[in-house]
Specification:
single chain; 2 domains; five-stranded mixed β-barrel; 3 helices; 7 strands; 36% helix
Length: 150
């Protein structure tokens, strides 16, 4: 084989290795990508059915139910409510009426969307709320105000 052909084969081989590596990296990135949705978006069916995502809003007052390590609560954006089930220990700062972000999947049991959380994140001080959750609550407040004016 001529040196020119060897060089060409080496270049083709290197491009193939780079292509395979890029495909593996992008595939891993896509599998670990987690999107944020509000309760209104989940109720509208915008959230993925068979994929993990995050839901954020406020923990509805009076909705927290504990049965050992099994916890049920409702996440609201003041327009729609989504029931959440979680098995595990909640963060110390988790409270009713405070901001929360839960990561997990929708449970297809029944007609009402139920969110089965694998992780629950609470705000870390009295002034902090995840930006996505704050924007969702602000948007919901504007929509609610516009509905009451009509």
């Amino acid at each position: 084989m001529k040196p020119r052909h060897k060089r060409f084969a080496l270049i083709i081989g290197a491009l193939a290795v780079i292509g395979v590596a890029a495909t593996l990296v992008l595939n891993a990135f896509e599998e670990n990508l987690v999107f944020f949705f509000t309760p209104t978006q989940v109720a509208a069916g915008e959230a993925p059915k068979n994929r993990a995502f995050r839901i954020g809003g406020m923990v509805k007052e009076g909705s927290l139910q504990r049965e050992g390590v099994n916890v049920r609560f409702v996440v609201t954006d003041t327009i729609h409510d989504i029931p959440v089930t979680y098995t595990g220990i909640l963060p110390d700062l988790f409270r009713e009426g405070k901001g929360v972000v839960a990561q997990g999947k929708l449970d297809d049991v029944g007609t009402t969307p139920n969110f089965k959380a694998s992780e629950v994140l609470a705000k870390h001080d009295e002034n902090y709320m995840p930006p996505e959750a704050q924007q969702a609550l602000d948007k919901a407040a504007v929509e609610k105000a516009s509905k009451t004016l009509k």
